[in-house]
Amino acid sequence: MVSNEVNQYIEKLIPARSEHVLKMEQYAKQHDVPIMELSGMETLLTYVRLKKPARILEVGTAIGYSAIRMALASEASEIVSIERDEERYNIAKENVNVLDLTNRITLLLGDANELQSQVEHYAPYDFMFIDAAKGQYQHFFDHYSTMLSKDGIIITDNVLFRGYVAEEKGLESRRLRSLVKKIRSFNEYIMQHPDYYSSILPVGDGMMVSVRKS
Across the chain, where does the E strand assignment appear? Predict the structure, then answer.
């Protein structure tokens, strides 16, 4: 992870976003909705532009911010996105409708651990983005990596978790310490996975990039 000063410098260089995207960012800030940091989002979009995936699976829609950003970055891509919180799901639907992306973004309401059959209906996926309950990352990866295309990519966000995976100093909450251990376990599991080449990028809150081996 980079220093706050470097991150602020990077964010100043990021091109302007559309008015509605800026409104979504403001809404997320005001209502404490977790969306990707700008530097992490730009890195994600770079991979989307390079890959030009026909179909993307996103685990963790929230208000539709990252799904919409990916759809705008790659006009040839169709996206299936899962959200378990009904209120956020409905807000995401409104945002997708406003931007006239309903024909390219399919939103599914429910727990990602229980929607495999629905998600498989749209498979295979060339690109997957995991950004949901961090304690469930390994389950999500195992559930859905089987639906990845031969040369597919999986990107998982928040794998550095504010730097706590390296040092738990200052973490008094038992719940947070448990979560950190789960993220560490996931990172080790993926980095040693026999079917993927993986690396962790210290951008945003930490991004794991996993590429299926031939």
Answer: 55-59, 78-83, 105-109, 125-130, 148-157, 196-201, 207-212
